[in-house]
Known about the structure:
Blueprint lengths: L2 H45 L2 H16 L2 H11 L9 H27 L2 H9 L4 H31 L11 H12 L2 H31 L4 H5 L1
Helix pairs in contact: 1-2, 1-4, 1-7, 1-8, 2-4, 3-4, 4-6, 5-6, 6-8, 7-8
Amino acid sequence: MPHWLSLMIDALPSLLWACLVFTVPLTLLSFAFGLAVGFVAAITRLFAPAPFAAFVRFYVWIIRGTPLLVQLFLIFYGLPSVGIVLDAFPAALIGFTLNVGAYTSEIIRAVLVSVPKGQWEAAYSIGMTWAQAMRRTILPQATRVAVPPLSNTFISLVKDTSLAAAITVPELFRAGQRIVATSYEPLILYVEVALIYLVVSSVLSSLQARVEKRFSRYGGFIEAGS
């Protein structure tokens, strides 16, 4: 058996373990919490009083205008200067959540605005409250439009979690770095890490295509936004 193949086989269990125990949970939790933050931020920006909307705009401006790696460093290495000490995983989770929240808020805001005003008027005309109109009329239509960009954000997040290695989270890329430090075979092992990310991203892309196809059977993305 070639040396490079033997090395990849030996490293695979450790890499997959790091992926399943750290990369996958970090991705899922960050996206779930970030989506919740994004939804609240989008609703606040569209419907809340001006001071609250201004605060959300400032939050989105800061997050979108600074690198994610810098944000992680500020949370993990910077906050201890003011007495706030976080473990690596919670620090990464907070950083990714805030980042995802800012970007998804813009997506959600855009798709909510894309729903015609006549839909609101129709809902109000049959006696719905604002909350009922949002839940029963607006969100179902907006969801169809939001699925593709939100899915892309999720897939990008899987790869972005590799930045957590910089703050010592033992996720997939960090596990690869540790093996490289003992084997002195960076090319082979980093290629293996890249292949694992590629496989995960490809699976998620396939699932995204299926979800989009299923939604298209019930009105389609274009129709929902028209």
